[in-house]
Amino acid sequence: MTTGYCSKGTIGKAGGRFLLTVCAVMVLIPAAASAGDLPPFVGEMKTHVTKYEDTLVEIARANDIGFNELRSANPYVDPWMPGADVKLVLPTRHLLPDAVRRGIVINLPEMRLYLYGPDGGTVESHPIGVGREGLSTPVGTTKVVRKVVGPIWRPTDRMRKEHPELPVEVGPGPENPMGTHAMYLGWDQYAIHGTDKPYAIGRRASSGCIRMYPEDIIKVFPKTAVGTSVTVVNQPVKAAWIDGRLYVEAHPPLDQAMMIEEQGGRPFYDMTDEDMKQILRIAGDREDLLDWAKIRAVIRNRQGYPVAVAEDPGIVADAPAAVEPEPAESAGPPVRKAAYGPEQEKHAEKAPVAPADEEVAPSPAAYGPYLPVRHPDIYNVNG
Known about the structure:
The protein is an alpha+beta fold. It has 10 helices and 18 strands. It is globular and about 65 Å long.
């Protein structure tokens, strides 16, 4: 089993800053001789049985995964009150992106960073936060040009125009949106950094920067030299052969990620031509083995972990069993009794009553099986 934490932060550069969050599950694959020997995945699937006081935000950080990752894998679970004894799927196995296996690779739809070792024979993965709509993190290739411990955050002109009350700068300390460490990129005003708001990891909440859990940026920082290449891709669907089985891993595209954030729910996804081309390319001359019913289900559900959609009989006979999680809460709407046991009712009776003139947010139960989780403070101006 693999557990980890995420870190979040804001990056600053002369004239402005962007908040970039990178969350990840840190998993090191045993050293291989070269990138060609590296397995096409990192990590192993896990499950978690909840306690009544758990929230998805806390569970995500404790297992080094992003909030939207965990929610997509368990779409019928109340993110704030999952209830006691609910079995969650933890999406902690990830197919490697279809990109150069060198330096840092960031896949925006899954909101995850991959850090390859110097020889390409090892890889670790961490969740991240990326740019929100209108302030997207760019796709392409750049490199780390500067590293700073204790970065200074300076709002950009756009931020100061929208929020004149912002300070001219924020120095190192617990209130710095960039966290404790920053790695500035060749793209002007973009960086990979920590954060002072870890609950925003795994969300589109930054001004374009890449945020990481505080504990993750501390791990990645010393392993990343100035000059390290950074490749950013947009691959909502990934595929790879593992032990004679073709696995497909599908994530919500970036525009749908914001819909999940703001409205709750899981939209219906159609298979695009690009999705089909990617799967057929990886299937190669074994496309006749593909189970298209399974593939359509994986694309439709977009639960963010690998699912086997084909088997090569000549190889599978001697291979380990397929990794197929059985999410207890994904077959239908949640059972509300599990979320509101005697302990919850006891605590609810002690909850303070808001004054009559104070605006009160609707209770989570009012939203039904899909709950909006837009926290006003994570969509802040700080990068």
